[in-house]
Specification:
The chain is an alpha/beta fold. 43% of the residues lie in helices and 23% in strands. The chain is built from 11 helices and 12 strands. Helix 5 links the parallel strand 3 and strand 4. The mean pLDDT is 87.
Length: 298
């Protein structure tokens, strides 16, 4: 008796629909027409003789079985990609495609000084970058949308391996004419919790800043509103409060053209670990270690 199995393409369509919750957006993500994606999913349901997705005019709802199939599909697709990665890594290292997620508090500051040399010395490397919050980047890694992630630790990552790129110190940024006239080095107890502006949830820098201060009241009182470090700097420049910035952002000139001053935060944990992480037991582990070495040299 012949057994017909789902194709990887059908599973990709299913996962994309689950991720985007919309047939049109899922089709765009898969680079196919909406009719092609819909037909592929109908074929999958016919093959399995089950209903995976409830279709209405207003919403797309997955059945309980559909959600279970999506979870299994994620694992199958990831393993299929790892098979391809294993073959690719057997050839010349850093010569094929690498999909890297990078968090917004690193991407605009670290990559411009690292990528030009990497392009010169590794011309065969096709590095596809996607900027995502820490939470989204780790989800992309474990769902197989990214091969590796450049992020700041500590942060919950699940089962991964890592290579440290550098340590990045934290600074307190405040208006130039701040009446409190902060000292050359600022201790956590000097930070006014009612004036502290931080990035919104999903950005690991918020957690690093709060952990460095080790003051529980800051978590309750700080205004977590910024969507980017540049936004926070503009708010501080307009006298709305103070914030914390990583040293790499200062080195990249984020304060240029502003009246904002930054001074180092004095704390046992006043820095974050910039690291490249990838899925544990990935067949491309040695290749990612080599990539981390290249990033450190930048």
């Amino acid at each position: 008796m012949t057994t017909y199995l789902p194709t990887l393409k059908q599973l990709q369509y299913l996962v994309a629909l689950h991720e985007h919750g919309h047939f049109g957006r899922a089709a765009d993500a898969c680079f196919v027409s909406q009719s092609t994606l819909s037909a592929g999913l109908r074929d999958l349901e016919t093959l399995l003789d089950v209903v995976l997705v409830e279709r209405t005019k207003r919403a797309v709802r997955f059945t309980p079985l559909g959600n279970a199939v999506v979870a299994k599909a994620h694992r199958l697709l990831r393993e299929a990609e790892e098979l391809s990665d294993m073959v690719q890594s057997a050839g010349q290292p850093l010569s094929g495609e690498v999909r890297m997620s990078v968090i917004p508090t690193i991407a605009p500051f670290l990559l411009p000084r690292m990528l030009p040399r990497l392009r010169r010395e590794r011309p065969q490397l096709k590095l596809y970058l996607r900027e995502e919050t820490s939470q989204a980047a780790i989800e992309s890694l474990h769902h197989g949308r990214s091969d590796c992630v450049l992020l700041a630790l500590p942060y919950p990552t699940g089962e991964v391996e890592k290579e440290t790129i550098e340590l990045d110190a934290l600074y307190v940024a405040f208006p130039k004419d701040d009446p409190r006239d902060p000292p050359a080095e600022i201790s956590a107890d000097l930070i006014d919790e009612n004036r502290l502006l931080l990035l919104e949830d999903g950005h690991c820098l918020k957690e690093h800043a709060l952990a460095a201060c080790n003051r529980p009241e800051l978590r309750a009182s700080a205004t977590m509103i910024g969507t980017s470090l540049h936004t926070l700097v503009q708010m501080v420049d307009n006298g709305l409060g103070l914030t914390m910035l990583p040293e790499m952002a200062l080195d990249a000139g984020i304060l240029n053209g502003t009246q904002v001053v930054a001074r180092p935060l004095i704390s046992e944990s006043a820095n974050r670990e910039i690291a490249l992480v990838w899925r544990k037991n990935s067949p491309r582990g040695e290749e990612f270690r080599l990539l981390a070495e290249e990033l450190r040299a930048g």
